[in-house]
Amino acid sequence: MAESTPTGIDVEAIRAAARNLEDGPVTAGYQGDRRAVLQMLNEALATELVCIMRYKRHYYTVSGRENAGIKAEFLEHAQEEQEHADWLAERIVQLNGDPDFNPATLLARSHAEYDASEDVQSMVRANLIAERVAIESYRQMIAKIGDTDPTTRQLLIKIMAVEEEHADDMRDLLDEHGKAA
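Above: the chain sequence. Below: its structure as tokens.
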């Protein structure tokens, strides 16, 4: 019979966690499908990397003093997407996986698309579409992971909240730019 504390904590599982140090934070008690979680995280990483490139391209190509606020928003979003990519890559490594930064397969693995629009309204629209795609992707990943990997789940929730803010920002810019056009 497994030894436990008065609060029901499994002492043998805790002792087992002290073994297999090469597994880092992945203990025997990890309940997620690590292979599936790593694949989802690498797809999310690819999506974030494509979003960084799209926002950076829009930042550098939008022009005009009247678009200074939009330009600043694009840069801010690119920086936040980079932070998301860093968090995802770190989580992949924590789960003993390899973050996939291969540019040759990036678009195929990404849920969002790259965009080379020339006009500001098209740029904002493309970014709003990509943010909505990211939100739905994260929502599905969170549901699929459920309670099996609380750390990854919390990370994805944190990222999704920022993506929702980004979508809100892009919607506002689309409304403002549409009214000004």
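The chain has a mean pLDDT of 92.
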